[in-house]
Amino acid sequence: MAPKEPLVISNKDEMRKWSRAMRCQGKVIGLVPTMGYLHEGHLTLVREAHKHANVIAVSIYVNPGQFSPNEDLSTYPSDFDGDIRKLMSVPGGVDVVFHPHNLYDYGNDKRNSNVAIESDKTVSCVDQGGFGHETWVRVENLQKGLCGNSRPIFFRGVATIVTKLFNIVEPDVAVFGKKDYQQWRIIQRMVRDLDFSIKIVGSEITREDDGLAMSSRNVRLSMKDRQNALSINKSLLKAKSAAADGQVHSEKLRNLVIQCITEAGGQIDYVEIVDQENLEKVEFINGPVVLCVAAWFGKVRLIDNMEINLKMDVRK
Amino acid sequence: MAPKEPLVISNKDEMRKWSRAMRCQGKVIGLVPTMGYLHEGHLTLVREAHKHANVIAVSIYVNPGQFSPNEDLSTYPSDFDGDIRKLMSVPGGVDVVFHPHNLYDYGNDKRNSNVAIESDKTVSCVDQGGFGHETWVRVENLQKGLCGNSRPIFFRGVATIVTKLFNIVEPDVAVFGKKDYQQWRIIQRMVRDLDFSIKIVGSEITREDDGLAMSSRNVRLSMKDRQNALSINKSLLKAKSAAADGQVHSEKLRNLVIQCITEAGGQIDYVEIVDQENLEKVEFINGPVVLCVAAWFGKVRLIDNMEINLKMDVRK
């Protein structure tokens, strides 16, 4: 069978119209939100979506609302034609690619934009854009800690754009990668708290053959940094194995990871062991936890994580 | 024709199922969100909804998310049977009354609730309730000033519950009273910023024969306070007339209102003249403005407002 070419939609109303027509036909609509420059990890999300839905929409939109002006919005990689080809290579393909131009430009009412900049110390590229957008969704506890520390407006930007995408695409199921673990938990909580009728599926991390977690940012690593960055996955595996062997003291496991990454030339942003649900730090592992890491290699910030689910009988 | 008895739905999934069935039948769905204890003002909203929609849902839910613990949540009046009777008296009636029990109780995951209370100085009755709800929608500029000053968590509570109701009822049109002017503007902006596909209709203030703006709280006024509270509407009319006669200096008009209400025994919360769209204070009237008032009579806080749309040729 020839690969299916997706319908490309850039208009919000058209997107919603398609979705509502599908719903009235009894179809289950799946959404995979992405920022483009797709890799095997994204395609895994699409394959996962096929397990839960009859028709699949993939959104490709680099969201300025989650970037600080000092972050890498302008250099974020893109390759729209390549993305379409990759999506067509997935068995079953995708039905729609939603590719809007600017989801914050309402074409009027820009008078309030300056107020937002004055009143907020930490601004996003949207606040700076002067579009007058002023509504933000925050998941107030889960957005704290981990990536929330070094990227203070990131999760408000993510929760807000996902709300917008949900309201435009109106899916029944949405698939998020567990590589962005905190993001996945935030979206789950947001969906519950705001009564979206959407099932949130978390998809396991896709890794390169050598263990590096796939990321659109990996292409910006130098050869040397790319090699050194393998220390992240290696250290996570080492810590997981140490935990399985009875080391349940978080501080000890953290130090193991920090040492391994630092020795390889990485600069740690954070290494934390947190509860899988509420993402609060744990001193000792006595339930399902996740070991989360963010580290810089050169000018590239990478994140990764590993769930640790100890069986009761191996715990000390 | 016998008055139509509305279907009463308390379950979220059932509510959404009804709405989606209507949509697939091509019906336009109208929503009138209320906190119950309905009066003629609410019925005006329902009549307005009939102009825009084929089927009408009225929600009756006293939202703890917009009340501070020191406010009047526990004494907020209710009369469900009376409400149903009143809704049946409107020509065309209403199709559904959505009357949920507790929209913040998710039946699990209460572990985070304490964190919310510790980290926020101003809490709502939802934070105190310990349900673990932690997602809030804020319209960051419009929520400032006017009622936002004396009720710091009010509009985050309103924006959040309206988002929840929109996600549950999934209407095409929703009608809000312009008596709650700031709320109306906030919901309009939120709908734009979050890409809800919902038309927001503002319905004019309904007044008693003697001019008092209708409110569920009016029943709690003593006979004397009820009489004194007429000063609000009187002062607004006086200011509007002064503006029409050429007095465009906001301070002068404010003072006129303040004096009139204070002399009648009211205690001013605020009197402001603001731009109708962005609700920013204006020093001189040179465009569409609204004069907004909040004042206490006895233990009851009343709000009212009047739009002032001067024709260019009467301006000095």
From TrEMBL, chains A, B:
Pathway note: Cofactor biosynthesis; (R)-pantothenate biosynthesis; (R)-pantothenate from (R)-pantoate and beta-alanine: step 1/1
Q: Which InterPro entries match?
A: Pantoate_ligase, Pantoate_ligase_C, Rossmann-like_a/b/a_fold
Give UniProt keywords alphabetically: ATP-binding, Cytoplasm, Ligase, Nucleotide-binding, Pantothenate biosynthesis
Q: EC number(s) for this protein?
A: 6.3.2.1
- Biological processes, Gene Ontology terms: pantothenate biosynthetic process
Give the reaction(s) catalysed.
Answer: (R)-pantoate + beta-alanine + ATP = (R)-pantothenate + AMP + diphosphate + H(+)
Subcellular localization: Cytoplasm
Highest rank taxon of the organism:
Eukaryota
Pfam families, alphabetically? Pantoate_ligase
Q: Does the keyword Cytoplasm apply?
A: yes
Self-association and partners: Homodimer.
Q: Which NCBIfam families match?
A: panC (TIGR00018)
Q: What is this protein called?
A: Pantoate--beta-alanine ligase
